[in-house]
Amino acid sequence: MKKQLAMLFAVILVIFIASCGKDVNEGGETEENTIIINKVENLSDYVFVDMQNKREISELIDDLKAAISDGTDIMLKSEPAYKKNKCEILIGTTNREESIEAAKDLGYFDFTIKHINNKIVITAGSDEAMTEAIELFKDEFIDSKAKALYLPDEFSYSYEYPIENLTVEGTPISEFKIYSGKSFIENEFITETLRRTFDFEMEIADEMTEGGHYIILDATSMKYEDYSIKIENGNIIIYGSASSVAKVFGSFGEEFLRPLGKKEYDLTKADNKEDKIEKPELYTKDQLLAVMNEVYNDKDHIIIGEQGRGQPNCVSNAITAFEKATGEKPGIIGFDFSTTGGGIWSEQYGGDMQAKKSLMMCEMLEYVAGGGIITFSAHWANPSGNYPDEENLYRGVLGYDYTKEAFEKAFTDLLTDGTEYNDFFKALLDEEAEFFLALQENGVPALWRPLHETNGNWFWFCTTMAGITLDASYIKNIWYYVYDYFAEKGIDNLLWTYSMSPSDNFENTPGASTMSALYLYPGDEYCDIVGVDWYTAGDLEIMNDSYLHLVDHARKPGALTEFGAAGEALGEDGKADPEKYSSMNVLRDLNELRSEGYSFSYLMTWGGSWSFYMMGFGEEFMADEMTWGQAEVKALFDGLK
Fold first, then answer.
1. What three-state secondary structure class fits 603?
2. Pairing assessment for the beta strands 148-152 and 165-168 based on DSSP bridges
3. What percent of the chain has pLDDT over 90?
4. Given 63, 427, 470, 543, which is the most exposed site by the fewest CB atoms within 10 A?
5. Domain range for residue 63?
6. What is the pLDDT of residue 28?
7. What's this model's pTM, rounded to 2 decimal places?
8. pLDDT in tens, 429-450
């Protein structure tokens, strides 16, 4: 919005600022629609009056002070308001008569800039408008070539609302409320948009009541670019995806109402509109695989990222958390289809679930457009219900009879149509398939990492349960079942990622805590990427050669599909402790592995207690030439075009 207004003002002013100090007729007449400006003499005599009452204003004073210094080589100082000075710069609300007079009758988006009685006055109807005023001042009135400040005697900007008298099928818009229960659009954005559209406050309703009139924000569509604006049952319905609804609502006044060309208008069904927003360009699944191969074959680099959590805006939250810890955006982000709090289907955050899915899909698409990579896993809930508690639905064993024969029957039933276990499992797969198809229809490829760590003994879908190890075929058959099930649904946007826990049980001795990383390998035709989930106590446990054993056999790009501190590397609270194992220890270990011939396409921490934020030294870690974030990954994709 700042840039848009700046361009608007550039047109309004036609100010010849670029020529100030050259051919300007200071104080003289100019062409029509221009503003007369004068050089501020004795600029070094001016001081900023600091009321010391608002942090935002103090920050704007500092910003403007720096801009004046950069443009004129004059550093002005600030003085508290009780000191009277001959030449003053008054920002916002002050106790000076010039400020008080200038602030009269300013609307929320209005502002004014004056130079009167040796006072430079900048005031506005809101903090937002004040920010715009400061930006205009910096862009248009500071002449860095002439090292001078040129100001008008008076300049005012008055916001023009797009329409003065709007009715909807005869009902005044003032009787409407806004309902956003089918979206995750923030109230602050809604309020700002409404202020720009109408000259009155509109209530944001928590629910709709019969007989009421509403502007309904329905952001539940899974089609990124499509949207519609409809008049239906006396309401205005803006329908689309999380991104299209936010964009269309944000420009509702300017892009929908203003073109009606009238100050008074009655909206009817004849004004219904369907259109599309612009969708960014995305890389393809083939290009994603090419990048995975390219980085894997380059031992000097590795893509770094982190597992996200299940909040509605899970992608932006994951990016923000990683950037806060490292100073860079992650090159890869992971998400889990889980029934627990960490999974993206978690209902603990409330809100409309379909709106949540639309928001996740849109954020994922925009992250991929910026070069980021998305990977999914699944902590599937135990179909038999034999789990320890509601927080660990994915643990326990399949069934209640702890014999090998019973376990074999349970896993056979899991894949047999018509059984209770199979019906439960297919319902989970259907929900995942629906989301994958939505991503596919929007052109988003992703990594899919099902049945992770199944060579262990801690999930219901592991090959060893209650000390009994099943033949590899039982778990492999689940992989084939899911693969075929998704293929029948038409899903073709996934790179299938096989990831196990590191293990030196190369003989596959039954009953051990882990079988070998190759024990459950489904075959080259069912897999695109391989890797291990490595949780380290700082002892380079991965060098038991299970990873090399896996990548040498599969001839696929390899990765550290999950990573985190464990055992002695954790603090007493069970979380990563930088004094025991920090991000710099991760870098040390990666360099050691590289020297031993290891190579990885990416490393993804599981986030939370194992995040770079918890391990510390994230900026130093990502500053190393080896580690790549989103910017470097985007450069790789751009190189494929």
1. strand
2. unpaired
3. 79
4. 427
5. 2-157
6. 38
7. 0.87
8. 999 999 999 999 999 999 999 9
Residue 601 has φ and ψ, to the nearest 5°, of -75, -40
* pLDDT at 262 exceeding the cut of 80: no
pLDDT of 51: 79
Domain CATH for 598: 3.20.20.80
Average model confidence (pLDDT) across the chain? 91
* One-letter identity of residue 239: Y
Kindly tell me the burial class for residue 179, based on how many C-beta atoms sit within 10 Å of its own C-beta (0-12, 13-18, 19 or more): buried
Output b/e per residue, 408-442; b: 16+ Cβ within 10 A.
bebbebbbeeeeebbebbbebbeebbebbbbbbeb
Of 145-154, 395-404, 405-414, the least confident:
145-154
Model confidence at 80: pLDDT above 90: no
Q: Which CATH number belongs to the domain containing residue 38 in this structure?
A: 3.30.379.10
Q: Using alpha carbons, list the distances in angstroms from residue 172 to 234, 250, 377, 477.
A: 11, 21, 50, 63
In the chain, the number of structural domains is: 3
Give residue for tokens 């892009």: 255
Instruction: Please indicate, yes or no, whether residues 171 and 153 belong to a single structural domain of this protein.
Output: no
Q: Cα(302)–Cα(304) distance, rounded to whole angstroms?
A: 6
- b/e sequence 244-281, b meaning 16+ C-beta within 10 Å: bbbbbbbbbbeebbbeeeeeebbbeeebeeeeebebee
Burial of 53 (0-12, 13-18, 19+ CB in 10 A): exposed
What φ, ψ does residue 287 adopt, rounded to 5°? Answer: -65, -35
Distance CA 241, CA 500 (A): 36
User: Which helix (H) or strand (E) is 264 found in, with range?
Assistant: strand 264-267
Residues 176 and 141 in one domain: no
CA proximity to 625, closest of 304, 372, 324 = 304
Helix (H) or strand (E) holding 116: strand 111-116
Share of the chain above pLDDT 70, in %: 94
- Residue 391: name the closest of 360, 349, 424, 346 by CA: 346
If asked whether residues 306 and 360 sit together in one domain, one would say: yes
Ranges assigned E (strand) in 332-482: 332-336, 373-377, 446-449, 464-465, 468-469
Domain end call among 129, 157, 185: 157
Helix/strand/coil (H/E/C) assignment for every residue in 533-586:
EEEECCCCHHHHCHHHHHHHHHCCCEEEEEEEECHHHECCCCCECCCCCCHHHH
Mark whether 40 and 86 lie in a shared domain.
yes
Among candidate residues 237, 258, 276, the one where a domain is terminated: 276
Kindly list the distances between the CA atom of residue 392 and the CA atoms of 252, 276, 343, 466, 607, in Å, as whole numbers in the listed order: 45, 42, 12, 17, 18
Same domain, yes or no, for 569 and 626? yes
Indicate whether 413 and 526 sit together in one domain: yes
The amino acid that residue 497 corresponds to is: T
Co-location of 255 and 396 in the same domain: no
Find the angle CA(407)-CA(408)-CA(411) to the nearest 5 degrees.
85
Decide: 38 and 114 in contact? Cβ < 8 Å: no
DSSP-assigned letter for residue 414: H
Question: Which of the given ranges, 10-14, 151-155, 546-550, has the highest pLDDT on average?
Answer: 546-550
Helix 242-250 and helix 353-369: axis angle, to 10°?
90
Q: Mark whether 255 and 294 lie in a shared domain.
A: no
Closest among 431, 438, 445, 430 to 222, alpha carbons compared: 438
